[in-house]
Each structure stands twice: as C-alpha cells, then as structure tokens.
Give the backbone structure.
Amino acid sequence: MLRSQCNDAYWHGVFGGLYSPHLRTALWRALVEAEAITDRLAHRDTSWAEVRQCDFDADGRDELCFASESYAAILAPSDGATISALDFRPSNVALINSIARRVEAYHSKVKDIAAGESQGAVSIHEVSRAKEAGLAQLLRYDRWNRNCFRVLLYSAEKSFADYERIQLDENSAVAGGDFRVHHSDAFGAALDCDEEDGWKVAKKFAFASNGESFEIVCEVEISPRSAAKALLGVETVLNFLAPDVPDRYFDSHGERHPLRWSGVTPPSELRVVDEWQNAAVNLSAPDAREFWIAPIETVSDSEQGFERVYQGSQILAVWPVELNAGETWRGRLTLTVTKYR
C-alpha cells in the first residue's frame, strides 16, 4: 500500500504528474495488489463475491463497489450508471486508468507554436515549444469522465468523424444522468432513469468470475415517449499504455491494429490485448452495426515541451435505433477479461 503513496502521479507540472500514464499505472498496480491481498485474508474461500454501497470517491453520492477474487469494480449510479474503475486482479491491472481531457492554461500557447520552436533562454517552467507539429488539432475536451458502459444516444446523422472529434452532441441525461438503483447484490445491479427529453433508460449489470477471468454483461433497454430515430452506442474505455508497440494491439477479424489506431471495425467481436501486462479484453456486442475506435490523447506540458500523451482508447459499440412511442429497444455489451497466456 505504501508504494501507492508516491506523490508524482497526483499533481501536474513540467516533470510529469497526473498526465503520465506510466506513473499512474505504477500506483494503480500497487493498490490493486494490496487490495487483493487484503481481500484474500478476509475471504478464505477460493471463490467469493461481494458488493458494498458507499461514497467511494467522497463526492456526496454513493457508489456500488463490487469485488471478487478476480475483479474490483466501482459502479457510479449518479454518473450515467457507468463503471469508473475496473481492476483485473490476477494480473494486477487497472483496465480503465484513463483521464478526461480538460482545458489547461497552457493550451492557449499550443496553437501559436510550431514543432521545435522555442522562445529562447528561459527557465524550465517557462519553456514553450512543441515536440511535434499539429498538436493544436488534438485539443479536444471530454463532456464526461472516461468510464465504461456509458450510453451515448445521438442523431442518426452523426458519423465516426464526429465521435473522434467529441462532437456527437449526445443526450446528456441518458449519458450522465442520475440513475436509481432498484436492485443490487454481489452479482449485479438493476438501475433506471427517466429523463425530460422523452426517453426512459434501464441498465442491468451481471458479474461472473471463475478466478482467472471475469465477465461483465451490461444490458440496456431504452424507450421513447414519441417516435424516434437515432444511433445508440455503449462505450468502453481501456488503457494499455503503449500505443505503438507490437505487444499491445486491437485484434479484429484476424487483423491487428496498434492501440493508437483510429477507425471503424465490423461487429460483433473485438479483442484488445496487452501481452506485457498479461491481460486480454474481449468485447461482444450482438447485432451491433460496428465498433468505433479512437485514441484518447492529451496535450500536456513536459520538460521537453508540449507533447501528445496516449491516455487509452474509447471504443463505441454502435446500434441503429428506430422506435415508435412506447416501443422498447434492447441491446447488450459483454466485456470478458482473461490472462493473455
């Protein structure tokens, strides 16, 4: 536990900090391992599962904290009934470990600096130069925390390019609404949300574990009060750190793509592999039209200048939705995590 208290990943400055995924990962790994050890001492059984309701992040609203011998997950009903943290205990991996892109004061300087330029001899805290061209085009800002199983409901006219640029203009009450918990136990939860724009949304989560792997099934039901045509996506966020190395990749229909890949792939199965951390995630979205995949990249400050930093990938399983008033659409996204080897 003490290894997780290193302060470097808890602040932001020119020598690293919060925007450095490798620093966050080292602390997450220590926390995951420490929590797993503690839970093994508390649960002598080989197989176990539990849920606790508590204000995990001290924001004044309760979360549901699921755990077993193979996973730990934090479900936030007040943030669109999404999973904000997800750990794979057999490999001590924090699977989400991403960060929302926010406005930083120094972003105003990025647009005016060409790659390699500098303003001369100044202190390291005043250096303004870019490590590569085109960084201004990466200044995109997220509407939501980078969680898993967020439901995005948006116009049928929107495209993958809009998703990549964070311009879907999705229904905010569906995506980030305050869901009511109707039922929860050690193996799942049922939640729903009525929102003013005319949609009723329900989500059910089911957790299953067999020690060396686990599965989360998220079922979504959505119903309009008047006839509607839209696209619906269920989003997953994963961060396996190294976007350009051969042992971290997307595997879709026999083709491999690096983690920095941005594109569209056919349904309904997608695999994301981290050979180095010994983890693999399989996503299954029956009847989905396609998967949309885009890297989450921040523009942050460092001692060498402004730089892009890969903070994970956003993966959207997309379905077309066309309903009359009172009709119900149902869809399902399953996330399965195993060791790579």
Remarks:
- Helices lie at 21-42, 107-110, 160-164, 172-176.
- The radius of gyration is 21 Å.
- DSSP finds four helices and 21 strands in the chain.
- The first helix runs from residue 21 to 42.
